[in-house]
Each structure stands twice: as structure tokens, then as C-alpha cells.
Amino acid sequence: VFNNELDILFATDGLNYSDIGIVHTFVASSVVSLVKNSVNRRCVNTDSNIAVCNSASSYSAQWPAVIVLHTVWDSEERDLTQLYLALSRARVYCSVVIFPYEGRTLDDSPHMLRLLRNLSSFARIIWH
Fold this sequence. Notes:
4 helices; alpha/beta; four-stranded parallel beta sheet; single chain
């Protein structure tokens, strides 16, 4: 899903790599490593880079296009606050990949299911 979203952004006319930010929230270090490897492979032989950062480290940063990788926990306040902070980094386009904490499913987080249902009229929700 992540690589498909990157492919969509790379096919967008007028969008440079430096116009793309990857913002993650509480994502496992192994996932962050995979993301960075994918980004680095795509940026070989270019003068621009794609920023990859934790949402807590990007409060004042913004990009025209952002891919958010959000891990869902148990706390509604924590989940929604971190998700909002990550979403607000995008100025024009934002794609969000939401996945539950290891060993859990989204069914364990009714607040997130409720949010996704409410957003379904405004955003394309892809369930995997």
C-alpha cells in the first residue's frame, strides 16, 4: 500500500521528491527502516530527498504531499491527537495508512472505526 501511494505521487506532474513528506506515529522501527529503504532507493541519482519523520518531530513542517503511517493504540485521545498532527503536515494531498498495534485489529479500537465511517463520505477508505 505504501509503495503504491509513492508511485502515485511520483507520477504527479510538477511534484518533486522534496515536496513529499512521510510522517509516522509510533511506528515500529522495523517498519520505519523498510520505509526509509524504499524512499532511499527511489531518490538515488536525484538532488532531492523525501523527508521521513516522526509526527512529534514535525510540528512546524509542511509538504504539498504527505503519506501518514499511523499506528492505532487503545487511547482515543492519543490516537486522534497524533493522527490530526500528522494529517495537518499536508498542504494539498494526504494519504493515510492506518494499522493496529501488533497483536490487535481495528475492531479493538471502536473510536477509529467510528472515525473511518464518518470520513467515508469525504475520503476514499481502502480496507486491507
